[in-house]
Design brief:
The chain is an alpha/beta fold and 363 residues long. Helix content is 31%, strand content 24%.
């Protein structure tokens, strides 16, 4: 084993007014031998270089402590849309790439931002509704079969996640066998899945990032979780699907960024009428629409939640309502900063919380 070796240098007497940078400058003898304006110019240059390096080092350290949150998809429910992908959020914390939920089109969102899905190997599922897991098979199979993933996919989710992944592996057994054992011989390690059925508490901690799961209330969908990510003094909470719950408020205290779901209004006049009639412009009945609304947080309730949490910024994602209609209801209770999430929106969480909206494609 190699041992560290300390190097000692002999002290040198400094002349009055001589910058301390000369203590470590290898050209110090040559500079001190110069005189007049040349020496002063060189000393000023070295001092500027030193100050610039110090500032850059401080900025780098500051940037490395930031969280970056990317909304890969923000659509509400198991819907189809040419404009919005299904619910999925990527959190970057230093070297950690943490993916929360796997809605449809998720990997297309990654590709649009030049994020290699093969590098995203840690997945956290809030619950097992299909609109939150539908792209999990794609993330499991494609980066291994086309981009050379050579490490297991790690998945944390509610009770039932292990069974779901077992059945997915059985469903794709033929494809896995051919690509791993017969034809291309892709690495066996890359198609393994390490699955954890979680309970409330810290579920993952690495490289300074801590992921905490907390129970939320999504009606009969139990258990359902929200997640909090803490990283070097900064934090983000992802609500998951939930009606208003004390537990979310508890785990969101002091958070920088709260990404909260947003369901339809529970007092929508269109809900009034015979329950078994179709809801206007829908193939669902009023009864079904009321049931769905009851399992979520509507805009009025969301404002009340935000007033209690008071995050630096709140962002609505997995939203089932249009932003202009909802904002007025939110503002009945909450006057703080609010954004409506868009696909590929990026949020930097540091001393300030900064939103970067996606650039529209050139036509």
């Amino acid at each position: 084993m190699q041992s560290a070796r300390k190097v000692r240098t002999s002290p040198r007497t400094m002349t009055r007014g001589e910058p301390e940078i000369l203590r470590c400058c290898p050209l110090q003898s040559s500079i001190l031998a110069l005189g007049g304006s040349v020496k002063k110019t060189l000393l000023r240059f070295l001092l500027l270089v030193s100050l610039s390096a110090t500032v850059q080092s401080q900025e780098l350290a500051k940037g490395e402590s930031n969280l970056t949150v990317i909304l890969l998809g923000t659509a509400g429910g198991p819907t189809f849309s040419a404009q919005r992908h299904g619910i999925s959020t990527l959190v970057l914390a230093g070297p950690e790439k943490l993916l929360f939920d796997c809605g449809h089109g998720m990997t297309a969102g990654m590709s649009a931002l030049a994020i290699d899905p093969a590098d995203v190997t840690k997945v956290f599922l809030t619950h097992l509704h299909s609109d939150h897991v539908i792209s999990l098979p794609e993330l499991y199979l494609f980066p291994w079969a086309s981009q050379g993933r050579n490490k297991p996919l790690q998945i944390w989710g509610p009770e039932g996640t292990s069974a779901m992944m077992k059945h997915l592996q059985e469903a794709f057994e033929f494809d896995i066998h051919i690509r791993r054992d017969v034809d291309e011989k892709f690495p066996a390690e890359g198609i393994k899945a390490i699955v954890t059925d979680i309970q409330e508490g810290v579920v993952h901690e690495a490289n300074g990032a801590k992921v905490t799961a907390f129970l939320v209330d999504h009606g009969p969908v139990k258990p359902a979780y929200g997640f909090r990510v803490d990283f070097r003094g900064h934090s983000v909470v992802i609500s998951g699907d939930t009606k208003p719950t004390e537990n979310l408020v508890k785990f969101s205290r002091g958070v920088d960024l709260l990404i909260h779901e947003l369901g339809p209004s529970k007092v929508d006049p269109a809900l009034a009428g015979p329950l078994d009639e179709l809801f206007p412009n829908s193939r669902q009945t009023r009864r079904q629409r009321k049931i769905i609304a009851e399992h979520h947080t509507d805009p009025t309730e969301a404002g009340q939640v935000l007033q209690r949490v008071k995050p630096k910024l709140a962002v609505f994602s997995h939203a089932a309502v249009a932003s202009p209609a909802a904002l007025g209801l939110v503002r009945q209770s909450y006057a703080g900063p609010v954004e409506f999430g868009e696909d590929l929106m990026t949020i930097e969480v540091g001393d300030a919380v900064t939103v970067h909206r996606p650039t529209p494609p050139k036509r």
